[in-house]
Amino acid sequence: xxxxxxxxxxxRKVYSVDEIDESVLVDIGTKTDFKxxxxxxxxxxxxxxxxxxIERKDFSIEFSLGDSDEPFSNTVFHLYGExxxxxxxxxxxxxxxxxx
Length: 100
Fold this sequence. Notes:
The chain is of the alpha+beta class. It has two helices and six strands.
């Protein structure tokens, strides 16, 4: 199984993607900031330029940081394997991000 999920840094909790607009978005940081957050959380993360990959026995997670170092408020994770969602949920809880 695989899924694509988006994480957002928001000023308040929302219950639907329809509630997300510029007024509730908060910057996560730059590509450099986000790379540090992920590297601090996943010491075994594999970096290939702007792509990151977290591999475990029963799942993997991939994502791109893009080519800009401008601040951003959301990004997409590609999840492979059922247990990947639990890993992303924990990352989001730790950083107060919302996942859709």
